[in-house]
Amino acid sequence: MKSKHLKTVLLCVPFSLFFFSVQAETNADSLYITTMKSAVEQMDTLTQKDDIQLCRMVFERVHRLYPDDWLSLYYVIYADLTSFYMDPKSANSGRLLEESKKNLALLKEYENGDMSEIVTLEGYYYMALIVSDPANNGRIYFTNTISAFEKAMELDADNPRPVCLLAFFEQKLPEMLHSKRIAKVQHDKAKELFSREAKDPILPHWGERYLSYII
Amino acid sequence: MVGLSVCYCIVFSQTMTHIAGSVKDEAGNPLSFVNVYVKETLKGAVTGVDGSFRLSIAAKDSITLIASSIGYQTFLKTGLPDSFEDITIVLHSDETILNDIVITVGSYSIMSSSTLENKNAVDLVTTAGSEGDLYKAVSLLPGTQASGVDGRLIVRGGSSRETQTYIDDMHVLSPYTFSSGNFSSWGRYSPFLFEGIHFSTGGYSSEYSQSLSAVLPLETKNVSDISKFGVEIMNVSIGSGGTKAWKKGSASFNVDYTDLSLYNTLFYPSVKKNWKEPYRKFGAQNQLRFELGKDTYLKTYFAYDKTGLNLIQSDLPDSHLRDFDLDEDNAYLNATFRKKQENGFNWFAGIAYSLNNRNIRNLQLVGDKAGDKEQEWHVKVKAGKRFSNRYKFDAGAESLVKDKDLQYDYHQSSQTGYSNNIHGVFISNDLNLTRGLFLNISSRAEYAGMNKSFAFLPRIALGYQWNKIHFSGVLGRYQQSASNDFLRDNPKLDQEKSLQSLFCIYYQENSKIYRVEFYHKQYSDLAHIRNGGYVSDGSGYSRGIDVFFNDYEFMKHWNYMIAYSYNDTKRSLDGFPEKVRPNYATRHNVSFTLKYSNFDMKSVIGLTNRTASGRPYHHPDKPGYMNSTAPVYNSLDLSYTFLAHKNVIIYASWSNIFNRENIFNYEYAKNTKGQYIERPVKLQQNQSFYIGVFITLGKNIAYDVSNF
């Protein structure tokens, strides 16, 4: 009887260890996926600055818990920049830009990050600098903005965000600064890329709303 | 298995603890929208308008509570869950992080690498009166005085040699092109080469030495990630250059050639006859930049220029003519290494070599020949470490080794020369005493090889920020070797010294900047002439007030700046038996700069008016010393920039549009009858007119005329 109990215990120990370890890992992954999926999807629908900042807090907590994860940090920056665009003259707009600059420098160090997405975000940041002071920063960051979006397109030709943002940016420029790119072609290309994009819940998939501004 | 499941449930079921409290700022005001959460979990809450929060967590062991908000330092506290049941969290503004310390006194960042105050070189040169020259642009700031005929920078009653220029923290021996008599010099280095231009009119860091009045540190780019090629055609010069960028580095080059013959023919045919050979200069610059790793950069910068001219000079008293014939070679090379580590350490090492070799025929007398060769090595290392948000320490060491050889031939040959070696160590302590209150205590120990003297040069700076007003003050001691002309005859002269005290009030709101600065410089050990010999027991003072107002958005498209400087100074000078106001020091200086930038019209129009009270000069027939005053200086300058295309900029500048004859001084010589003959000292040309086309080719280039 004793040996039977012992045998059961001996069988249970490795099983239990396996069960706990699998459970713990699964819990961790599912927690990350569930939280990020919810936050990323929510982010796409938000139109108020306060709501965006609330969502940013979730990304910040995720990043603190998963410091090796580039996407949560990416979305922290995206949330700050989008908050900036919603009210560029607000009292904390300078701080949002400073915070984004600091976090972008950190994000660029992630080797597992999607460089096309990261460089797109960098272009989005330069565009914000121009919005903050168009008369002065327009001349200074024009090159950086366009180069960032073009580089992002080179890195991933299927990424719709740089195509869309570049079209949006060029549309806002004085005519003399327009490139040889034809706006309509870029609009259609962005539209097509967005429609083709696999809407992975834990990858960036924002930007489609910019299409409505330019088409 | 049932037992196992029960066991699992027991392990994972814990009592819920409620965490609650409020978040305030240092003044006790509730902070809303603060992210409060528990480390290692996603459990969190957001504070309401009253700063309160509440969350529940299942934990028995100690936890770490985090509170974060943009603009504040993140709060972390570890303890048992019970200890957080009613917690008050105070968040400190991240303005108190040491990194943000700015002692505004004496300091102007014209172009800065900081994100939000970036101005590029185009902004700088489109200011009327700058004429595309770095030093002329800087001379529109308060604290500076209207340049003399030599066109050099004069700061707060100090002579032009009291201001030193640095490129990437390495000293530049001869930053100006040659000037003589009524022919003005220019800066050797184009503003388009630099990413940052920081001008300090006094109270500068202990890192900078051998300067009694001001320093002008210039920063080149660490990274240039765009390949481009540019051409510039002006009515006085042509130039071309470009940058080739690759993944972890870039190489830039530029060549330019200046020739004033066409300019003189077109605009000043009457003075063309004075030039046997027009001013000609060939220049070449190169920079290599390597990104060796994260925040690790190696850069080299090389510049060479060769200047030649032959100008007929007329000597007093008999208007005897002399062909002043110059041939000058100037070279500058520096290499710098910078590394910023994640653990807060910063490292810097640099080496620079400057060479200036001038050969002049008919310098003082027809038939004489003078050679002046000057070279300098500068080696510097420095390191810094941020130990906390409250304290940062920097230290460094440097050596300046300068050799000067002079030769003068007139019937017989004479040779002289000397070596001037300066070795220094410096330390700097930045302390954040409390919110908004910053203190810097630094010092420099310096050994001067020429007279084997050792000096201790302390500096203390205090800054306090109260809302949008910034108060700062500096008290510091600085020293500089006597001028080359004096050292040539007496190499044992002491280091000249200045004790500088400055106080600044700075206020910025939106686009408006108001600034008032008071200063007092006490000079000692100044070299001057006594009984026909050079001695080091001179003294003097320079004191005054600078006022600055800038509104860069006072109306749509309009930007204006007003700078006023009052200066009162006297010092031991040359052979005067009493202290006098030097000829280069003007008591009142006012500049008014207006700029209209309209992108729709593709135009930037600049207007600058500069007025300075008359310069003192010595009239030998009148009693006293420096007993007369030259007429008031005034110049109204205009510039126009047309953005013809994103790759093409057309620039035109017209200085002194009313053609006012500005007189800087008078020179005297006795004729054969024993009477003094007087001649005003003025520029050969009252006006200057420049027009140029800048074309830059490259992907995504717009309004970037820099080839670097």
The gist of it:
The complex is a heterodimer of chains A (215) and B (708). With 215 residues, chain A is mostly helical.
Helix and strand arrangement:
The complex is a heterodimer of chains A (215) and B (708).
Chain A lengths: L1 H42 L5 H17 L4 H17 L6 H15 L7 H18 L1 H22 L4 H13 L10 H14 L11 H7 L1
Helix pairs in contact in A: 1-2, 2-3, 3-4, 3-5, 4-5, 5-6, 5-7, 6-7, 7-8, 7-9
Chain B lengths: L1 H11 L3 E10 L9 E4 L5 E3 L5 E7 L4 E6 L6 E5 L7 E5 L15 E5 L9 H5 L8 H5 L5 E2 L8 E2 L7 E5 L2 E3 L21 E7 L13 E7 L7 E7 L2 E10 L2 E11 L1 H7 L1 H4 L2 E19 L2 E20 L4 E21 L4 E17 L7 E20 L2 E20 L1 E23 L2 E12 L4 E14 L2 E12 L3 H6 L6 E14 L2 E19 L2 E23 L2 E14 L16 E11 L4 E10 L3 E2 L10 E2 L3 E13 L2 E8 L7 E8 L5 E7 L5 E11 L10
Parallel strand pairs in B: 1-7, 11-14
Antiparallel strand pairs in B: 1-4, 2-3, 2-5, 5-6, 8-13, 9-10, 11-12, 13-14, 15-16, 15-40, 16-17, 17-18, 18-19, 19-20, 20-21, 21-22, 22-23, 23-24, 24-25, 25-26, 26-27, 27-28, 28-29, 29-30, 30-31, 31-32, 32-33, 33-36, 34-35, 36-37, 37-40, 38-39
Keywords:
heterodimer; A: 215 residues; mainly alpha; Serine Threonine Protein Phosphatase 5, Tetratricopeptide repeat; 77% helix; 0% strand; globular; B: 708 residues; mainly beta; Immunoglobulin-like; Maltoporin, Chain A
